């Protein structure tokens, strides 16, 4: 009897398959979205959260098909408006863990306004921005993150607009958790997602995602496993900024720019900047444009500050405690008049 009771109280162990829905996954074969879906299913199974407490909210785009493929609650909503719906859900049901899936078009064109306010307010929502630098669903128009010169159906002579840097956007919007991952990084990406899930506040992860149909190869130099060591650097707080085969290269972050240093001696090693999650360093690392400097991956910035949903709840609790007045009184309170 005792054992039965214990068994009954034990939480069921979940595995990634428990988070797969019965829907046929309809991305192009080979799309980077598949790897992200796998990573998310793995991460959800590792979080100590009941399955019924997850909600995935998306806008419109290939990326935004995500909620169909997860056996959690989900909303496939309106182009660019997922942050508004996610905010509403979090306010109405604070016990839910709300994830938001968006693309560079959905989140940074039509939805940029909503996304920055979600981050500024620090709503406790986990944002996954799939950045493939193109509009995939509508068949290959340039997006706000497309590189200058990219020839697409809507930029036949090459894109002429300066691309947005999603990490810089998130930092400028005062997002309290800002990170970058790579779709096929089966170790690094889930690790970032778990940290994002545990963070209290808006967690923003830009995920480099290959759209091999309309913008193939945009991230080849860092997606390719053979090249990744040389061309990326993983940000680990408290650790020197080392990269390359056998960590034989490092970065020195100067106030005026970033220097790549070959490490040949102990003195060289000691000159390498130790990474700290502070805004100034995050901005410097996020703004790297030099192709000779590796692309930072990992958590750029994290801070603890009050969440929007937490503060609203405090207001509600306080209002309930302070004034026990009827709806009738509320309606007739203050400046009212009769016609
Ligand atoms: C109001 C509105 N405007 C435009 C569209 C057309 N539209 C659908 S998805 C999309 C962009 C998708 O790009 P992205 O968010 O990068 O997602 P991807 O398909 O690349 O994953 C656009 C412009 C729409 N559905 N609704
Ligand atoms: S169009 Fe691109 S982003 Fe969309 S499913 Fe196909 S490969 Fe993926």
Automatic annotation (TrEMBL):
GO MF terms held by the record: oxidoreductase activity, acting on the aldehyde or oxo group of donors, iron-sulfur protein as acceptor; thiamine pyrophosphate binding
InterPro entries in the cross-refs: 2-oxoacid:Fd_oxidoreductase, THDP-binding, TPP_enzyme_TPP-bd
One of the Pfam families matching this protein, by short name: TPP_enzyme_C
Top-level taxon of the source organism: Bacteria
An example Gene Ontology biological process: cellular respiration
Thiamine pyrophosphate enzyme TPP-binding domain ranges (all copies): 60-207
Record-listed E.C. numbers: 1.2.-.-
Keywords on record: Oxidoreductase
PANTHER family linked to this entry: 2-OXOGLUTARATE OXIDOREDUCTASE SUBUNIT KORB, 2-OXOGLUTARATE OXIDOREDUCTASE SUBUNIT KORB-RELATED
Protein name (record): 2-oxoacid:ferredoxin oxidoreductase subunit beta
Organism for this UniProt entry: Candidatus Berkiella cookevillensis
Gene name tied to this protein: korB
